[in-house]
Design brief:
- This protein is of the alpha/beta class.
- The protein has a single domain, classed as Glycoside hydrolase/deacetylase (TIM Barrel).
- The chain is built from ten helices and eight strands.
- It has helices at 19-30, 46-53, 80-88, 94-112, 131-142, 162-173, 176-186, 203-217, 239-250, 252-260, and strands at 6-15, 36-39, 59-64, 118-121, 149-150, 193-195, 222-226, 263-265.
- Strands 1, 2, 3, 4, 5, 6, 7 and 8 form an eight-stranded parallel β-sheet that branches.
- Helix 8 links the parallel strand 6 and strand 7.
- The longest helix has 19 residues, at 94-112.
- The chain is globular, with a radius of gyration of 17 Å.
- Keywords: Carbohydrate metabolism, Hydrolase, Magnesium, Metal-binding.
- Pfam families: YdjC.
- InterPro entries: Glyco_hydro/deAcase_b/a-brl, YdjC-like.
Length: 270
């Protein structure tokens, strides 16, 4: 008897940031190498890209942003280190955070003409203290909690060694356990496992080795995040590696890895 296939959500972050990212996501979703994308609704390319997402059979979510000044409608943003400090000291205004999340929800619904399928955070801010409180308040009041899911960053595998594995666990320690407890209490689904953390260096070869490890180790129901773009943006520090990710994800080698590890790219099973 063959191994049971693992259902994996392949999620591209940062849709709407620029046209380079948008084109990569749209192409990869069309050929079913992606099953989800997380959207920066304050990004310059969000209004033009949203309409093209509507026809695709993928999960489309809100990538909550509190760390980058993407446009004039970005009412609140702080450098990541400062935001973390304020969150852990409980010095953020939760009512203000709720309003900012609502604005980003409004921008999502205005252009997608529907509610988000899921929520996560740019640089994982959605799991920080106070920010997760604001997110849960919005979910409970504004949406049917059975119909949306939230990204968990909890890694239940050991797919990478040394520093990269440490980075993944550090991200989870920023609030994943507390967020998951709140989500269970409110009946909000979340992914069973998480991967995709690395230092965004090494080109396509490094990304391929990482992907091999992730696919081998993750559980059924895992989410693997990625950050593809068709071409690099000179204003984007990840631009070169985004192009490398895109090249690998569209190629035959990724398809071969999915087969080898009995993985199927699917939408979230809630």
């Amino acid at each position: 008897m063959g191994r049971r296939k693992k259902h994996i959500v392949m999620c591209a972050d940062d849709f709407g940031m620029n046209e380079h990212v948008n084109r990569a996501v749209l192409e990869l979703a069309t050929v079913r190498r992606l099953s989800a994308t997380s959207c920066l609704t304050q990004g310059a390319a969000w209004p033009s890209g949203a309409g093209r997402l509507r026809a695709l059979d993928i999960d489309v979510g809100l990538h909550i942003n509190f760390t980058e000044a993407l446009d004039s409608d970005n009412h609140f943003h702080r450098p990541l280190s400062r935001l973390m400090l304020k969150a852990w000291l409980r010095q953020l205004d939760v009512a203000m955070l709720v309003r900012e999340i609502e604005r980003q929800c409004d921008a999502f619904e205005q252009h997608m003409l529907r509610e988000p399928d899921f929520f996560d955070g740019h640089q994982h801010v959605h799991q920080f203290p106070q920010i997760r409180d604001a997110l849960i308040e919005v979910l409970v009041r504004r949406y049917d909690c059975d119909d949306v899911w939230v990204r968990s960053t909890a890694m239940r595998h050991a797919s990478l060694k040394g520093g990269l594995q440490l980075k993944g666990h550090l991200i989870a320690l920023l609030g994943s356990a507390a967020l998951c407890r709140r989500l269970r209490r409110e009946g909000v689904p979340f992914n069973a496992d998480f991967a995709g953390v690395y230092d965004f260096t090494g080109g396509a070869a490094r990304f391929a080795r990482n992907m091999d490890g992730w696919l081998a180790a993750v559980e059924d129901g895992a989410l693997i995040m990625c950050h593809p773009a068709q071409t690099g943006d000179p204003n984007d520090t990840l631009g070169e590696q985004r192009v490398a990710e895109y090249g690998f994800l569209k190629g035959e080698a990724f398809g071969a890895l999915l087969q080898r590890h009995d993985c199927r790219v699917t939408r979230m099973q809630t």
